[in-house]
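[SOLVED] Predicted holo structure with pyridoxal-5'-phosphate

Edit: marking solved, answer below. Original request kept for reference. I posted the sequence and ligand SMILES and asked for the 3D complex as structure tokens.
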Amino acid sequence: MGGRDDGDVYTERLMRHGAPKADFPERGTEARVAYQLVHDELMLDGVSRMNLATFCTTWTEPEVHRLMDESIGKNMIDKDEYPQTAELERRCVRMLADLWHAPDPGGTMGTSTTGSSEAAMLGGLAAKFAWRRRREAEGGATDRPNLVCGPVQVCWEKFARYFDVELRRVPLRGGAYVMTPDDIDRYCDENTIMVVCNFGQTFTGLFEDVSGVAAALDRFEERTGHDIRLHVDAADGGFLAPFVSPDLVWDFRLPRVRSINASGHKSGLAPLGSGWAIWREERDLPEDLIFWVDYLGGDEATFNLNFSRPGGPVVAQYYDFVRLGREGYRRIHSAKYGTARHLADRIAAMGPFEIIHGGHPERGVCAVAWRMVGDEPFTLYDLADRLRTRGWLVPAYPLPADRQDEVIQRVLVRHGFSHDMSDLFLEDLRRSIEHLRRHPPSPPLDRGEGGGFNHGARSDPPATVPTPRAAGGEPR
Ligand SMILES: *Cc1c(COP(=O)(O)O)cnc(C)c1O
């Protein structure tokens, strides 16, 4: 190419004519040109660290970047070719079983996954298989499995639909934000494959009463003879409570808890692509879920939905465990909870809000959730939209049934969101409220009957403001 390598990147053909968008390009281009083009387009994405909607890791140490880079060619499934990556996975499984108080951490079953969603599918499938086997032994029907839970993350809706299980979602009643132990009797029966408790509910961040639900299931078994598994979706809480609320009993200390999923890429602090499914004891993972693969060289057990997947997230997770230990996780998460409580105090003091979850480590994940109670000429959707002009992504969304007429807003405080950034955010929140008071998005008369709107309560946002999705989307 002669001297062309020194040419200005913005005078190259691709830069002068625009990027391929639909037809598969006939010719390629130089790496530096392709890089610049892709890099520039991605500037239009939001700044991930200002995305206060996500639970997922958005800041990592430079060493993690290096290990991820060094692992780029490592395939997690190829345990014979990359035995040490496989060994790091086994160590992580044992460490998590230990962290979550499995009776025999060295002998239990568990696996890394791409996230909590895959781990949830595996937890659900294990329960479904175990339930079916028990029903067959009893001579009962096996065609109507159901799963009982409160308001759950979409992965459980997927599990139910993809694997043909009825989802019995307990609606929110009265002032409750979570499923309660009282709900168990009414929703469970002989076809319930398991109950799922949210340890860190997606909508509010609140913990469900896992030990209360476990006790209700114990009573249910005494009365009916049906032994129903409890699975804890500890996507975020599984990496928080063990460090900052160690006395909270939600894990394998409860014999009723047979499996737990968690996202390593949330409060586990690993980069995206890290999740974990751990069973209480080896016998809690039905054998028919395990495949033995010998075409990669050895004879390896696999119980994942994926085949090939990157080894980097597992390597990085092991790095985090070694780097931080219990003490390091405690320090990081305590600092985050301190920031969350600072945010909650200031947001409450602004006036028009009532705090639903104020970032107390015994009550929920490191988040603050609130609803509007003041008489204001704007809604939380408007506020979310306004905050976006400064780059903050703070979702507003309706609560799940039966409280779907109420709208709430939530921020996640993650590693890398400092006290200073929280003050910058609070200042923007204050300015946004002032702006919306001075310039109400649309005349109050357009906003439905009574005073309902000022609580953010409406089913359809008016056309003049973005839909909930555009203003931050559903909680993730
Ligand atoms: C984030 C989350 C999930 C989904 O986890 P991924 O790791 O994103 O697949 C499931 N359940 C809860 C409670 C969550 O917070």
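OP edit: The two ends are 48 Å apart (CA to CA). Thanks to everyone who chimed in.
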